[in-house]
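Risk register update: the risk of archive-format incompatibility is retired. Evidence:
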Amino acid sequence: MNFIAADADYNQADTVLFGAPYDSTTSFRPGTRFGPPAMRTESFGIETYSPYQNKDLETDARVHDSGDLELPFGAPDRALEMIEARAAAILDDGKIPFLLGGEHLVTLGAVRAAAKRFPDLRIIHFDAHADLREDYLGVKLSHACVIRRCHDILGDNRIWQFGIRSGTRDEFAFMRNGHVTTEPFTAKSLPSLSFPADAPVYLTIDMDVLDPSEFPGTGTQEAGGLRFTELLDAALDVLGRFNVVALDNVELSPPLDSSGRSTALACKFLREELLALRTR
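Archived output:
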């Protein structure tokens, strides 16, 4: 089963969805491995038409859903290699890879592929958590360290974070020392962010940036988050203004929300992103 209306032929598609159902380094409540298949199933409960953008997935986007990777549980190195290979193949074909997680560590595989193809890559990151730890319990490949590992690749002044409201003292010191640019709690400064028109951008959205009152289906909830409309406005701004060459949505954990509202929100949000992507 594919995500609703994501049934374009691969060769004709501008955007290619692929799932990374992986949560082996989850530090609190697991379940994100069930995110991608749940989104496909539940997507048929929403319309293909967006009243936000006056666009329709059936006529205004060419999206191919290539399914989920079969990732080896408990082997993050190998899982990241497989994610990188899939993202690289999509990029090589001149298309935009859109990764569905899975825990946030899966982002690293896609960023590796994008950074190799676009050496001047920037990252725009929405999250409740900084994810800037050098290691978590002595392990450097963890969802708690993923943005730090991305920084290892890109270096200073190439990562912008929004909505951050949780982290260690060391993580916040890393931000204040200028290694990354962070707006805690909100995304109000996003409209002032500017890059050259052709600058490649990777957009990563950890869905726990949303307030848990709207999105309880995630493994590490943090009070004080963005509202759906705030995150939607921010995402549409990024996708409308910047040259987004790859992106992901991660950390939906359907088993943690028996009401299903988190999955329904994630599906609607994904629809809007697919319609807003600037295709080439």
